Amino acid sequence: MLIETSKKNAICFDNSYVLLGSRFYASVKPTPVERPCIVKLNYGLARDLGIDLEVIEPEALAEIFSGNQILPGSEPLAMVYAGHQFGQFVPQLGDGRAILLGEVIDNSSFRRDIQLKGAGLTPFSRQGDGRAALGPVLREYIISEAMHALGIPTTRSLGAVTTGEPVYREKVLPGAILTRVALGHVRAGTFQYFALQRDEKALTQLADYVIDRHYPVVKKVPNPYLKLLEEVMDRHARLVAQWMQVGFIHGVMNTDNMAISGETIDYGPCAFMDTFDQTKVFSSIDHMGRYAYGNQPPIVQWNLTRFAETILPLIDKIPDRAVDLAKEVIEVYPERFQDYWLSGMRRKLGLFTSESEDEALVQSLLDTMQENEADFTLTFRRLCDAALGPELEGSLRYLFKDARAYDKWALNWRVRMSHEVKTPDEHVELMRQANPAVIPRNHRVEQALEAAVEEGDYGPFEKLLEVLSSPYVEPVGHTEYMLPPKPEEHVLQTFCGT
Ligand code: AMP
Ligand code: MG
């Protein structure tokens, strides 16, 4: 009886999306699983969400995070949306394997979605089985938590359970369910779904919903929907600039994978690059390189344009005027992105001030890295030490195939640094906060997943998570996590795992 009571209070749901009405979702319960078993819980995140995991019995935890048990206050639903997948419009997608359990208000008064990913069939499952495999679940867990620790807006991972059931992909794999937490799961594709039906009432309802939830400040201006577009544009310009600064490649930036909240969402075939390469693609399904590293900024603008099209009728009743107004906002994006990107890159180079030549300095480093196959993360991290003096750049030079190419660039960098009045220590301090020592390198992620999935050994997964939780600090005694893969450790491709 005691357990029952505590379970009741474990998650205090306060649901708002369900109030939009049944056009926006399908009510559907998770399909129970055979033998749920907790493999990971995020106690820190749970505390932030006001969820007290300690009061719940371990067996009850597995029942809750597998969806076998629905807690009071939860109103499970699958959200409907459309989307452009690799440029092709699909009129109806929707949560095919994710079920929103409900929302909670976190300790900072933000509303957060609690969703199970891999929770079984929904009306939107199409040909899919509604399930997820353990490898991709752990992959999303690692990478989303790493992104958060890097300071990049992202969905979070609250827990992972194995289901005790097989899932059938190219081979038979253990099934699992991820509990994903987001500021909101409304996507550009959600707007596209209602725009396709020319359902202006639903579009207005949805726009008002995201304004209330994510952009309340826009309510104060004369044209809140235009301002909404501008704010969404701004958040995504900033987000993609942050991705670029850590070498993150999302891999599947379809409009249904673009959250209006401005969080990174849907970790499928994403990856961090080791060797710097503007054209880098990891995803096995991205044959044309649409979502290659260097294509991410313009593709975000393309996605934003698709979003803008959906709210034109809300922006202005006169279609031509609506188009002109929206265009003005979308055209600001390249400049906005550039500003975020350049100010971040200045920090990475230890620069406190702005000079007109800075962009060329950054670009010439990137070009030199590309030509000389330098490791992205390690180059910038070692540059922090080099800021103390040329005598400390030995190990950095050898990241470049031709060390003299680095020397040539570094001369210009040192001249630029000399224009600043800061001490070397101040430059280093700035740089160490902008240049992570550890990122979820592919080979480490794969090693952790392989140990967990093949051998049930979660040691490497836990260790990796621990190191990634403080990415700007060099892991004492574990500097191997900073290193690029050895030739035999290279991961060439990633898979979305659906
Ligand atoms: P994604 O590529 O993960 O963004 O998924 C694209 C669409 O396919 C979304 O509507 C997903 O819900 C759906 N989907 C992905 N995997 C599955 C699956 N195993 N079962 C059902 N639907 C899925
Ligand atoms: Mg998706």
From TrEMBL:
NCBIfam families: PRK00029.1. Pfam families: SelO. Nucleotidyltransferase involved in the post-translational modification of proteins. It can catalyze the addition of adenosine monophosphate (AMP) or uridine monophosphate (UMP) to a protein, resulting in modifications known as AMPylation and UMPylation. ATP binds at residues 94, 96-97, 117, 129-130, 180, 187, 266. Its cofactor is Mg(2+); Mn(2+). Signal peptide: none annotated. Mg(2+) binds at residues 257, 266. The keyword Magnesium applies. Belongs to the SELO family. Keywords: ATP-binding, Magnesium, Manganese, Metal-binding, Nucleotide-binding, Nucleotidyltransferase, Transferase. The keyword Oxidoreductase does not apply. The active site is at residue 256. It catalyses: L-threonyl-[protein] + ATP = 3-O-(5'-adenylyl)-L-threonyl-[protein] + diphosphate; L-seryl-[protein] + ATP = 3-O-(5'-adenylyl)-L-seryl-[protein] + diphosphate; L-seryl-[protein] + UTP = O-(5'-uridylyl)-L-seryl-[protein] + diphosphate; L-tyrosyl-[protein] + ATP = O-(5'-adenylyl)-L-tyrosyl-[protein] + diphosphate. GO terms for molecular function: AMPylase activity; ATP binding; magnesium ion binding; manganese ion binding. This is Protein nucleotidyltransferase YdiU. It comes from SAR324 cluster bacterium. Its EC number is 2.7.7.-, 2.7.7.108.
